[in-house]
Write a structure and sequence with these properties.
The structure is a homodimer. By secondary structure, chain A is an alpha+beta fold. Helix content of chain A is 55%, strand content 7%. Chain A folds into two domains: 84 residues, Glutaredoxin, CATH 3.40.30.10; 132 residues, Glutathione S-transferase Yfyf (Class Pi), Chain A, domain 2 (Up-down Bundle). In chain A, helix 1 crosses helix 8 and helix 7 packs across helix 10. The C terminus of chain A is likely disordered. The interface between A and B is large, with 42 and 41 residues. Chains A, B: This is Glutathione S-transferase family protein.
């Protein structure tokens, strides 16, 4: 089999950027395919049947093997390309700690993305409506998650230890989106000085900047009040509060 | 180090039962500690500081190593006790497939638990109120998840292949709770015959029955209209729709 994998993604997606950065940091050979999330390419039956029944990205294709879920992709890449142990764990305890984080992430910090999505994007899709309940839910998940990150960062320099790991990339790219959307005000950040310092350290990594350009541009456009044409019909199945009955 | 681990759990928790069954199926040596979820023992600051800042179970303690998140515990046990490969994967693709499922699970099927929780338990905690929005959210997540399981079970006998894996246990115990609460009516089940057959096959396993007795009893009590005294103050941070501002 060839050693080049195919990476289906979109740079506005936080989990996509985390995997993308992991591959750039470690030199995984890949070809990229941008999936047009903005117009719901990922929501077509063809896409769901071929790649992922949930319609989510990122997706990795390695020969006849197709894999989705960013955390599963990270672990797979670590085995497949024997990535340096810091990224997905050097021993079973560290691997478990990073997996623990990835699940905490999916159900806590990741769902804070609703604060960004419903503040900055929902209007582009469904027009001006009252999104305050969805935004409140996202802010609630952020408020539940950030003190936990802060506590961890009191004891160590990164989320799962004193080396950077894939857990840091997953978390970091949530905050990149919040930064792009100016979602977390400075007085809120002031309550989490270690998390802020960690975030700013990670921002300095060239590969972090390499994958974050588009979301920062899109965020700046939205903050300036420009609309972005988007026709995707459904809300996100995770990361944001799915709301039954939101207009299609 | 000793080979006996400590397992903190509660038998009404679906992820706890999945880990419990895994340990019984594979003969992992463990001592159990029941955490009194009903009265919110897991929500005390002492518990959160000692074990898990999210207050969730299951938790595994192995000497000086404390781990939470059921999927991370499963993977850790597989390495720690060299469990048979079917449970967490025989090769890197199978391991990745099971991890993929565990993340799909956390963000999709697991959140269907709200249908059970808000139908059968919420009233015991907060009294009679209108929980229809929370129940609708749980049912929505179930309705999104079940067709995907059905499709997978068209191609193979278990969720991640033709052998039972930890993915099956995670999913199975969600349906055990729905069964206990009579949440999924028979005409709904009729649309998912392969999933139903898979569920009934798994029900036959002695270790499945061994860990499910209490939830079936509690479910029967609630279906008969008996109240169960519960004083836990917060909603669940996952598996159900967290609602900011629900009365404490």
């Amino acid at each position: 089999m060839t050693d080049t994998v195919t990476f289906l993604h979109h740079p506005t997606s936080q989990p996509c950027r985390a995997v993308h950065q992991l591959m750039l940091e470690t030199g995984v050979p890949f070809e990229e395919v941008i999936v047009n999330l903005m117009d719901g390419e990922n929501e077509t039956e063809e896409f769901k049947t071929t790649y992922n029944p949930t319609g989510q990205v990122p997706i990795l294709v390695d020969g006849d093997f197709t894999l989705w879920e960013s955390a599963a992709i990270g672990s797979y890449l670590a085995e497949r390309f024997e990535l340096p142990g810091n990224w997905l764990g050097r021993d079973m305890r560290q691997r478990a700690r990073i997996q623990q984080y990835s699940h905490f992430h999916s159900t806590m910090l990741r769902r804070g993305a609703g604060a960004f999505f419903y503040t900055r994007f929902a209007e582009c899709i469904w027009g001006p409506r009252d999104y305050s309940a969805e935004i409140a839910m996202g802010r609630y998940m952020l408020a539940e998650s950030m003190p936990i990150l802060e506590t961890w960062l009191e004891a160590r320099s990164h989320l799962c230890g004193d080396e950077i790991s894939f857990a840091d990339l997953l978390a970091f790219h949530e905050f990149v989106s919040h930064e792009a959307g100016a979602i977390i005000p400075s007085d809120e950040w002031a309550r989490f000085p270690r998390t802020r310092a960690w975030f700013e350290r990670l921002q300095q990594r060239p590969q972090a900047r390499a994958v974050s350009g588009m979301i920062m541009e899109v965020g700046a456009m939205r903050r300036a009040g420009h609309m972005i044409p988007m026709t995707r019909r459904t809300s996100l199945a995770k990361g944001t509060a799915v709301k039954p009955g939101l207009p299609g």
